[in-house]
C-alpha cells in the first residue's frame, strides 16, 4: 500500500515528499552499468585484450622475437591502466554541497564559523604574499635578493708552483 500526500504525488515527479524540488533522474545513454565514460571503458578493455593476445603469442609462439612480444604485451596491458583510471574517475559522482569550497561557491557563513574562515583566509593570504617576490623600487626586480651586489670569482688556470700536479 502506497501512501501519498498532497506534496508527494505521481503527477509531480520532480518534487519530493518534503516539497523541495529535486531533479528527475536523467536517462543514461549506452549500456546500463558502464557509467558516463563508456569510451574509456571500451578502450581499456581493447588494450587489455590486445596486450594479452600479444603476450600470449610471445609466450607460446615459436618465434625468434618472442621476448619482444612478451615485453610489448606487458607494456600494452600496463598502458590500459590509464584508460581504467579515466573510466573510474569519470564516473565519480560528487554532490554539489561537497564542491562548494573547491569551485568558489562558498556560502557566506555567519557567526563563529564565518569569523574563523575569514581569519584563516587573511592569515594564509598574508603568508602567501610574503613569499612572493616583490619588485624593488630601484628598478631591479625579478631575480633573487642581492644579485646586484654579487661579483664574479676569477680563478687562475695555470698550476701553482710547488704543486703535486706538474
Explain this structure.
This protein is mainly α and 166 residues long. It has a domain at 46-91. Helices cover 44% and strands 0% of the residues. It contains four helices and no strands. α1 runs antiparallel to α2 (66-90). The longest helix has 25 residues, at 66-90. The model is unreliable at 1-28 (pLDDT under 50).
**Portion in strands:** under 5%
Secondary structural class: mainly alpha
Shape: flat
Largest sheet: none
Number of helices: 4
Cα-based radius of gyration, to the nearest Å = 33 Å
> How many strands appear in the DSSP assignment?
0
SSE order, one letter for each helix or strand: HHHH
Which residue ranges are poorly predicted, with pLDDT under 50 across at least 5 consecutive positions?
A: 1-28
N-to-C CA distance: 106 Å
**What is the helix fraction of residues, given as a range?**
40-55%
State mean pLDDT (0 to 100 scale): 74
Organism: Lepisosteus oculatus
InterPro entries: TMEM238
Protein name: Si:dkeyp-72e1.6
Region (Disordered): 129-150
Structure summarized in a few sentences:
The protein is mainly α and 166 residues long. It has helices spanning 38-60, 66-90, 96-99, 111-131. Helices cover 44% and strands 0% of the residues.
Blueprint (SSEs and pairs):
Blueprint: H1 38-60, H2 66-90, H3 96-99, H4 111-131
Question: Any descriptors?
Answer:
166 residues, mainly alpha, 44% helix, flat, Si:dkeyp-72e1.6, membrane
Amino acid at each position: 500500500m502506497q501512501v501519498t500526500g498532497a506534496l508527494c504525488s505521481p503527477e509531480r515527479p520532480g518534487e519530493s515528499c518534503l516539497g523541495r524540488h529535486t531533479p528527475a533522474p536523467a536517462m543514461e545513454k549506452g549500456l546500463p552499468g558502464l557509467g558516463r565514460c563508456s569510451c574509456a571503458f571500451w578502450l581499456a578493455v581493447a588494450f587489455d585484450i590486445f596486450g594479452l593476445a600479444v603476450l600470449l603469442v610471445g609466450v607460446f609462439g615459436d618465434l625468434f622475437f618472442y621476448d619482444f612480444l612478451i615485453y610489448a604485451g606487458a607494456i600494452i596491458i600496463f598502458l590500459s591502466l590509464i584508460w581504467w583510471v579515466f573510466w573510474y574517475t569519470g564516473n565519480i559522482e560528487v554532490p554539489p554541497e561537497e564542491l562548494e569550497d573547491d569551485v568558489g561557491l562558498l556560502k557566506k557563513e555567519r557567526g563563529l564559523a564565518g569569523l574563523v574562515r575569514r581569519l584563516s583566509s587573511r592569515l594564509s593570504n598574508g603568508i602567501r604574499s610574503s613569499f612572493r617576490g616583490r619588485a624593488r623600487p630601484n628598478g631591479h626586480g625579478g631575480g633573487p635578493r642581492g644579485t646586484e651586489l654579487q661579483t664574479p670569482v676569477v680563478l687562475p688556470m695555470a698550476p701553482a708552483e710547488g704543486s703535486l700536479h706538474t
